[in-house]
Amino acid sequence: MNGPQPEPGTGAASDPIAPLLSARAVHKTFGATPALRAASLDLYAGEVVAVTGRSGSGKSTLLHCLAGVTVPDTGTIVYDGQRLDQLPTDDRSRLRRRHFGLVLQFGQLVPELTAAENVAIPLLLERRRRASAQAAAMEWLDRLEVADVADARPAAMSGGQAQRVAIARALVTSPRVVFADEPTGALDTVTGDLALQVLLSATRETGAALVLVTHDNRVAAAAEREVVLRDGTVDVPATAGRPESGRP
Ligand SMILES: Nc1ncnc2c1ncn2[C@@H]1O[C@H](COP(=O)(O)OP(=O)(O)OP(=O)(O)O)[C@@H](O)[C@H]1O
């Protein structure tokens, strides 16, 4: 696709009763392995959705497709009226940076940078002043109780500290959708609860949607809606409608 892309958020899909993000009949195969088979899911602004299912059922692949990290083989991903799956790589990266916050399972922090620098990066890329970006980074590190590793590089952090730094980085831009892949996976019960509460409260404050891929029953229980994947297909009605109730 050529030429400048329209900025999402101004299109017809800004209609409050339309889904903010919609995957339709998404297929994704890695070599001979089908990871997603006709997976469909609607996500509305402000809702909290847990994606669960057995190991290998396609949860991470679905999250990556929804977040524009992976392009489906077939099917569509529409974000706020715009075909995410058809955007050129650079436009997709820019959209991701501006609108989405991602907590991935592996390799998410830049090893050469400190925790504070890692968290500040998304703001610096959007031309925030260095002092303001650093102050915001420190606030989020503090909220996730990892301010003490602000000057440490990832190699000097525990897995749980690195995971909380990654959550801070995902939230620092006040994104419209936060995607978290096993956000409590490397955390003990207490820090896992803290991370979950920060994800829930941060997205509630801004009205962002939150997608949680998880094996953790406590995380799934905190969501308003659970989407179960089985062999790459969504097992519950994909267009289950906008949730009636507010958040817990
Ligand atoms: N980059 C890849 N290359 C090859 N195969 C892949 C890749 N990513 C995923 N797969 C395969 O696709 C299928 C779905 O994987 P996916 O990681 O989405 O499942 P998952 O439900 O998130 O699993 P888990 O709960 O173990 O993290 C699996 O069979 C997996 O081996």
Keywords:
33% helix, 4-stranded antiparallel sheet, single chain, 6-stranded mixed sheet, binds adenosine-5'-triphosphate, 7 helices, Rossmann fold, 248 residues, alpha/beta
Count of discrete structural domains: 1
Largest sheet: 6 strands, mixed
CATH architecture: 3-Layer(aba) Sandwich
Given the helix and strand composition, which structural class is it? alpha/beta
Strand order across the biggest sheet? 6-7-8-3-9-10
Cα distance spanning the termini? 42 Å
- CATH topology, by name, is Rossmann fold
Helix content: 25-40%
Instruction: Write the H/E string, N to C.
Output: EEEHEEHEHHHEHEHEE
**CATH superfamily assignment?**
P-loop containing nucleotide triphosphate hydrolases
The low-confidence parts are 1-6, 9-13
What does the average pLDDT come to? 89
Ligands, deduplicated: adenosine-5'-triphosphate
Summary, kept brief:
The chain is α/β, with parallel strands linked by helices and 248 residues long.
Structural notes for this entry:
It is a single chain. Helices cover 33% and strands 23% of the residues. It is globular and about 45 Å long. Strand 1 (21-30) and strand 2 (33-43) form a beta hairpin. The N and C termini lie far apart (42 Å). It has one domain: P-loop containing nucleotide triphosphate hydrolases (Rossmann fold). The chain has 248 residues and is α/β, with parallel strands linked by helices. A 6-stranded mixed beta sheet has the order 6-7-8-3-9-10, with helices on both faces. Helix 5 runs parallel beside helix 6 (189-206). The chain is built from 7 helices and 10 strands. The protein binds adenosine-5'-triphosphate. Adenosine-5'-triphosphate is lined by residues 30, 33, 35, 53, 55-61.
